[in-house]
Amino acid sequence: MLLGVISILPVSALAQCPVSVAVGDGGAPRIKTEFAIGVGGVYTMLEAPSTDVALKPRLGYQGYVQMALVFGRFIGVGTEICYSGGSVITSLKDTKFERTVRTTTVDIPIFLTLRLLNIVRLNLGPQFTVMSRAEYSVDGNTQFFGPVYPTVNATAGLGVKLFSNLMLEARYIYPLGRGTNQFMGHEFTTTTKRITAGLTLTF
After folding, report:
1. How far apart are alpha carbons 183 and 185 in whole angstroms?
2. pLDDT in tens, 96-142
3. Is the distance from CB of 114 to CB of 75 less than 8 angstroms?
4. Where on the phi/psi map is residue 9: left (φ > 0), alpha (ψ -120 to 50), or beta?
5. For residues 109 and 155, is the Cβ–Cβ distance under 8 A?
6. FRET label pair with 58: which of 70, 90, 111, 136, CA 20 to 30 Å apart?
7. What are the residues whose beta carbons fall under 8 Å from the beta carbon of 188, sequence distance 6 or more?
8. Which residues pair with 169 in a beta bridge?
9. What is the pLDDT of residues 188-201, one digit of tens each?
């Protein structure tokens, strides 16, 4: 969590304090701040090879707040706080026993943005998962599945402007590590890639 907070501080400080910026032709500033909010869906490709447990992820949801510094017309550096929720239908193979594992996740990506023709945005950077919680219930008792996502991930994304301040964004998130999970006494490792898509409102 500390790493995520430290990563946000520089952008937040610049956004709140008056800063002297360079001025380009026509008096337009070369450096500006940009904020955005968004909602979308998340699909997790959850793999657990060679186990007695079957995993069937379902489509989840997410909401996020973005902050960025934009340098000129083509380059931006930003960060984001993203909250997401979802579920995984988890069962023991060759039995009818299954449970719904509920997941809650908080991610903080840091991304470099290339802006093309004021329409297309390409995003690339690391993503830090500062909270990954998953649990299920058995006979009214809460059981912990373990973290679904590793702490460090890599993300690449594409955004397309639909209107002056509305964008359609999609991302692919690749894990830079594996997770260790348990279900009804069975322990196993998992790999969790993600695809997200949603609408972002900039201002």
Report:
1. 6
2. 899 999 999 999 999 999 999 889 999 999 999 999 999 999 999 99
3. yes
4. alpha
5. yes
6. 111
7. 48, 51, 53, 180, 181, 182
8. 159, 198
9. 999 999 999 999 99
Query: What predicted TM-score, i.e. pTM, was given to this entire model?
Result: 0.83
Which position has the token pair 């890639």? 193
- The 3-class secondary structure across the chain, one letter per residue, is CHHHHHHHHHHHHHHHCCCCCCECHHHCECEEEEEEEEEEEEEEEEECCCCCEEEEEEEEEEEEEEEEEEECCCEEEEEEEEEEEEEEEEEECCCCCEEEEEEEEEEEEEEEEEEECCCEEEEEEEEEEEEEEEEEEECCEEEECCCCCCCEEEEEEEEEEEECCEEEEEEEEEECCCEEEEECCEEEEEEEEEEEEEEEEEC
- For residue 19, give the amino acid letter: V
Out of 25-29, 38-42, 78-82, 182-186, pick the least confident.
25-29
In the prediction, which pLDDT does 94 show? 83
Query: How does 126-160 read in b/e, with b if 16+ C-beta sit within 10 Å?
Result: ebbbbebebebeeeeeeeebbbbbbbebebebebe
In the structure, what pLDDT confidence band is assigned to residue 28 with cuts at 50, 70 and 90? low
Q: Contact at 8 Å (CB) between 159 and 167? A: yes
- Token output for 88: 């995984």
